[in-house]
Amino acid sequence: MEHSTDMEITGINSYHIDYEMAAPFEPSWYPGFEQHVHKVQLYEVETDAGISGITSVTGDASRVDSLDLAREYLVGTDPRNIEKRLDDLASLNSYGPRPWHFEIAFWDIKGKEVGKPVYELLGGDDEPIPAYASSGELRPADERLAWVDERVDEGFEAVKLRFHSDDMADDLAVARAVRDAYPDLTIMVDLNMGWSVSHPGGGTWTFDDALSVARELEDIGNVGWLEEPFDQLNYDALARLREATDVPIAGGEFNNGVHHFREFVDREALDVLQPDVMLSAGISKTKLIAGLADVHGLQFAPHTWNDGIGFAANVQVLACTNPSWCEYPIEPPGWSIETRDFLLEEPLLAEDGAVSPPDGPGLGIELDWDLVHELAGN
Fold first, then answer.
1. Sign of the four-CA dihedral 256, 257, 261, 264
2. Do 45 and 70 share a domain, yes or no?
3. What 3-state DSSP class applies to 11?
4. Of 102, 136, 180, 344, which one is least surrounded by beta carbons within 10 A?
5. For residues 30 and 370, what is the distance between their CA atoms, to the nearest angstrom?
6. Residues sharing a CB contact under 8 Å with residue 93, sequence separation 6 or more, in sequence order
7. What are the pLDDT digits (tens) for 160-171?
8. 141-153 and 168-181 helices, crossing angle to 10°
9. Does residue 1 lie within any of the structural domains?
């Protein structure tokens, strides 16, 4: 059934934004790389109804421009007919650059039209979602413990540590130090071996490496999961490791489309499914993946490490599904809340270790358009 009044996409505005970070950030997944700028490609999908939807691509992915194809497929269509638009995005996906982030703008438009947040349109509520503080750098034990102290003081009951040192014993020593200081704290561990895009560092561990770490983590105890121990498409190795350890195995942040997650389930490769609405599948299909996890007794805990728009979009899905945790990226001074949410009028803050979905229309957020135009030079 079509909508009673027509609406058409009339154009897509694009803004390339470089945000100077207050301090350098050395992401563990890009060994040897020091980040000084948070790069975001912001898109504004305009309609003839005077309603615009926003979406974005962050980091290295912002360098891949799919705008011309997106305009060709989307201008002149109704953004509220999301299932039909997903067919258009599937066609775009065949050409290369992932297009799923555009669907987020359609939901933003749909919510703004009726004055409701996305989670409410999808049957969710605004109950706070338990969050884990997600680190992003490799740090020695004393520095990491200071970070954990701050997060525990803020109310977090779980933290994620990054493992990517040349000697895995160094990473394990950090995890043991955190466990000794906080016997009841849930610890997640991310190996970041699932993908290697612009910088070296992905897919370098052997099965024995991963199993050895898993055994050590079993001894450390109360480990929420071991994330991305192998390449994102190495279903057999993931399944083999999952069978060999009691530590839950997690992954999926950079997998492309629902069929990859179906493979994870069919091959019994993961305990925790971690799609990102901006990277993996969009809002509708990520909700479908959450249902897939639910019916198979798996955990659902989306990846959220992008920018404030992406974080808000993922939280909207968390609020209408049955998530295990909300990832809360925070690694000051480089990756601070200001760096993550600089596009937003108001940052999305955790309270007592939990995140509530923003409850404004659509994605629930307002952009700082003055800053957007200043940084984009238009």
1. negative
2. yes
3. strand
4. 180
5. 32
6. 99, 100, 256, 257
7. 999 988 888 999
8. 40
9. no
What Cα–Cα distance (Å) separates residue 217 from each residue in 100, 110, 187, 214, 241? Answer: 35, 45, 9, 5, 13
**Which token pair is 43?**
């898109």
Higher pLDDT, 94 or 202: 94
**Mean pLDDT calculated for residue range 349-360:** 96
The answer on 175 and 44 residing in a single domain is no
- Asked, for residue 172, whether it belongs to a domain, the answer is yes
Beta strands in 48-93 (DSSP E): 52-58
DSSP for 208-262, please give it.
HHHHHHHHHHHHH--EEEEE--S-TT-HHHHHHHHHH-SS-EEE-TT--SHHHHH
Structure tokens belonging to residue 326? 């909300």
pLDDT, tens digit (0-9, with 9 covering 90-100), for 276-320: 999 999 999 999 999 999 999 999 999 999 999 999 999 999 999
Q: Give CA angle at 304 (41, 292), nearest 5°.
A: 120
CA 220 to chain centre: 27
- CB-based contact 139:163 (threshold 8 Å): no
Residue 360 located in a structural domain = no
366 alpha-carbon distance from chain centroid:
20
In whole angstroms, give the CA distance from residue 350 to residue 352: 7
Of the candidates 114, 116, 46, 55, the residue with the CA atom closest to the CA atom of residue 79: 46
Which CATH number belongs to the domain containing residue 54 in this structure? 3.30.390.10
- The DSSP bridge partners found for residue 161 are 189
b/e sequence 46-74, b meaning 16+ C-beta within 10 Å: bbebebbbbbbbbbebbeeebeeebeebb
Q: In Å, what is the CA distance from 87 to each residue of 50, 72, 222, 285, 313?
A: 25, 14, 42, 12, 20
- For residue 278, the enclosing domain spans 121-355
Give the number of residues written for the chain: 378
Q: Give residue 2's pLDDT.
A: 47
The answer to whether residues 110 and 129 belong to one domain is no
In the chain, the number of structural domains is 2
Q: Are 265 and 292 in contact (CB under 8 A)?
A: yes
| Shared-domain flag, residues 72 and 172 | no
